[in-house]
Amino acid sequence: MAQVIRSPKTYDVCIIGSGAGGGTAAKVLTEGGLDVVMLEAGPPLNPGKDFKEHVWPYQLDHRGIGVGGKLRHQLNDEFMAPNGFWEIEGEPYTQAPGSNFAWFRSRIVGGRTNHWGRIALRFAPVDFKARSTDGMGDDWPLAYEDLAPYYDKVESYIGVFGSRENIPSAPDGIFLPPPKPRCTETIIKKSCDKLNILCVPSRLAILTKPLNGRAPCHYCAQCGRGCISASNFSSSQVMIPPAQATGRLTLITNAMAREILLGSDGKARAVSYIDKATRTEKQVSAKSFVLAASACESARLLLNSRSTSFPDGLANGSGVVGRYLTDSVGSSGMGYLPYLEKMPPHNHDGVGGMHLYIPWWKFDRKNDFLRGYHIELWGGRGMPTAGQFDGVCNDFEGYGTSLKQKCRSMYGTFIGFSGRGEMIPNEKSYCDIDPNVVDKWGIPVLRFHWAWGDNEIGMAKDMQETFRAIVEAAGGTYQDRARRSEQPPYGISEGGEIIHELGTVRMGAGPKTSALNQYCQAHEVKNLFVADGGSFVSNADKNPTLTIMALSWRASEYLLGEAKKGNL
């Protein structure tokens, strides 16, 4: 058996993962005086070298989409922020028969915060008490009022633009001024007003004013490629640097966590990881541990951490680890507005995302489904790439000059809608360890089980009806791609496609029905915390990253206090 290399030092805290939850924990804990080590499965990030927001398509081989266009519809084409993958060579995951789940992973410092859309929405009070409202799912063991001060702290520090609207389904926050709507957003706003549908300034973690030494957005609209000026939020540029500045953060990259080891006192004592560069097994010891590797990766790590005390996985006496897996309900649509062909060409300056959005507006009525959804908007003349005109080329015959002229005339004439709704957890959607498959590091992989419920399909149907109504009220023609496609009913996304997987290490009132308490602390292993989306009890219609950071900030302050009291 190969020798295991053990670190001679015992840190105060070991954080696994450097994304939204891990980066937040690193900042709070190091500034609080603790000595922290962070394990990241990917390499370091150099924004000046790795980000491509100001690179033209013609400057990249195959215009950035790979040989034969194989990267055309992936988030890891050469334009995007690096190291975000749907598939990683040598690191597979499997599907149970009849299941279809796509797992997006990021292997780089900052994790998926380098790739997210920066949509920063607070959960509403009702989102924490869903079962008390409609009898489905479970209530959280904390209320909105418990988390609101931490939403304040996160928003004040990272910068979120928006407007105060006093909408019950979309709580107001501490906002920077929002950018003005662009042409297509103005059209959608007028159409929504006709239909009495709320349409308000969006809430994105992008600076419109200088904040904490970071420059405001310069409106190149290329946020998905990264941001050299750090004007949009990423953990790699906003959370990790201040933690490093304390001198109390040790960052170990290319470290693939394999197992959390338990001590004779029933507490976690070390993490076993694979050093990817040397392919050797190493261990790092700490007094406390924070899992922030992403909901599914953290569940995988716990399930693989078996011992005589926890034969089904560490902190899994309840059996809930891996269970209650959810993703946002997604369905999209697009409208063609012929009068935009006559719009004079102009710059669609702005942030790399929507300036307006549609929050859940049917919260005050009885619907054909439970819970709700919001709508994200897109349109205008973005950066032309090889994949920009796929739809036109698919819908119209032609070749050469005639097809080019058609593409030019259609360019900028479409408005798009992406619905994002709440999935209610069900017993058919979960992840477990595949008993027969390991990755190239020898670590057993996850197997996904997935099924949408009738409530989610009903919600997608309502999304499609709303998209059509808005387009037609705007004088356009709705492109019903969902009906023509081979997708499930009403164009509902496949599991994992929206990249909002949550709930695999849920919090709750006690150890029989949950893995964590309201401070994200394991019921059964008091020096173990989970600070990513795994702790969620429900998956509201809001994008989860802001709530992950608020929960992590709250958990980290609690951990800091308990550590100073000697309770861990």
Explain what this protein looks like in three dimensions.
By secondary structure, the chain is an alpha/beta fold. The protein has two domains: 1-45 and 103-158 and 234-326 and 430-435 and 501-568, FAD/NAD(P)-binding domain, CATH 3.50.50; 165-232 and 329-421 and 453-491. The protein has 13 helices and 18 strands. Strands 1, 2, 7, 8, 9, 10 and 18 form a seven-stranded mixed beta sheet that branches. Strands 6-12-13-14-11-17 form a six-stranded antiparallel beta sheet, with helices on one face. A three-stranded mixed beta sheet has the order 4-16-15, with helices on one face. α1 runs parallel beside α13 (545-565) and α4 (144-158) packs across α13. It starts with a strand and ends with a helix.
Q: What would a concise description of this structure say?
A:
The chain has 13 helices and 18 strands. Strand 1 (5-16), helix 1 (20-31) and strand 2 (36-39) form a beta-alpha-beta unit. Helix content is 23%, strand content 18%.
Question: What is the element layout, followed by pairings?
Answer:
Blueprint lengths: L4 E12 L3 H12 L4 E4 L7 H4 L33 E2 L8 E2 L9 E2 L23 H5 L9 H15 L24 H13 L4 E2 L33 H4 L1 H6 L3 E4 L2 E8 L5 E8 L4 E12 L3 H9 L25 E8 L19 E3 L14 E7 L10 H6 L5 H10 L3 E8 L8 E9 L5 E6 L4 H20 L3 E3 L1 H4 L43 E3 L14 H21 L3
Helix pairs in contact: 1-13, 4-13, 5-11
Radius of gyration: 23 Å
Structural class: alpha/beta
Number of domains: 2
CATH superfamily of the largest domain: FAD/NAD(P)-binding domain
Number of helical elements: 13
CATH fold descriptor of the largest domain: FAD/NAD(P)-binding domain
